[in-house]
Amino acid sequence: MKLIYLSLTLGLFILLTELVFTQVKNPTIYPYGGVPDSSRYDPLGQMFGQGIPLSFYKAEFGGLTFNNRVDFINCWFKCDANFDSSFFKSVVNSWSTKFDTLASFKKAQFDDAVWLINTCFHGPAIFIDTHFNSETIFSAAHFKSSANFVRVNFKGHADFGMVVFNGETDFSDVKFDSLANFQAAIFDTLAYFAKAHFKGPANFYAAEFDTIVFSGAIVEDKLTVGSRRQKFDFGRTLFGSQAKLELRELVEISMQPEKIKHIFLSDTLSYFLKKDIIENLKQRNFKHDRKAQFELDYIFAKSTMYQEQSDKYVKNKWYQIWKWPKWFVSFIYYYTMGFGYRPFYYFFWAFLITSAYAWVFVVNMPERINQYVTSGSKRNKNSVRKKVSTETSEVELIETIINAMYLSIILFFTPWWQMREILTFFDAREKQILVSERLVGFLGYIALFKFSESDAILLALKSFFVG
Length: 467
What we know:
Radius of gyration: 35 Å
Largest sheet: 15 strands, mixed
Oligomer: single chain
Helix content: 25-40%
Number of helices: 12
């Protein structure tokens, strides 16, 4: 009987042991090496399923595999915490955890979500070569010593919002495949993002720092900045073709003029805040660079094209017909002020104007256009008119449109001294229309070369054909 009782007791003990240790291979002292600490018991935490907090005096988890969910909620590591090369297959919840000394996660792998919200690292935090394959939340965490995230790969959303970094912070060679949020983060000392790769959006709005380094960093999506009295140096940052640098507040930026094209102003900003941001950049960062100042004015014009001049953001509605004239003027202003540094806008306007005049020709003088194009201008206009007057009715509309477009292009680009043959063919009323188009084309030439600075056209051609 005693033997049966002993066997049952031993079997039950083994079963319970297996249930307790299913998450960890070769576990240390139960549970996970932690000791229940009733002095830190939180009644509110019990309402959400939290038991008595654990205190760790030994935490050697290097190389272990955690198959199921791991909860370190409100735990206190009073010793070095070693998670080097550990493998976490499920969710890791480390809400309000406290690390007194070293916390090392070198080469660890997290396959599911990681929540380190409000966690406090009193000693160095090391995440070198760590892989986070899902969302990673560090919101409101506090790094009181150094934080090392060199060569970390964040495949999911990485949230460092409102995190405080008191020591040196290193995010060199980090890869952010998705959103990287550092909104309202505080960096008390140097913050390295050298050679960091931002494949998804990155948000540094309202971040505070002493010095932040983006040397060699690659930006492929939207990078949001905007922190008063803060300076961002993007001189050695690489911006992809689709990259955007969103400004949401007064900020100092150091970059080459050719990178200014990536700047855009947040749509939710008021008209006058946008104006202050642009004027601040022109005066503080590009004071002696006329081309850079023009580019900034160009960005401002584009951003405020349909915006009310107000201290608050007002969303316009397309059915507000009374605003259409102002929007049309803004549209014209935006697409003409680009002549100086975007000479290909000239061809946009040339196509628009020649098409408009071609339509005028089709409506007002279709027969005369067809006569001129089909018979030539060197013949006597009266004989030509008699010869082809009976045939004009047979000319199809499509042919008339082609002929009108052909004449319109000739008028727009032909020099004045070659206009004589055209003008001698048409009568006085028709000449008024023709001369008006030629005058518009001449003004286009003046605008193109007047507002173009040295080498602007050549640089645009090189960018278009070479890249």
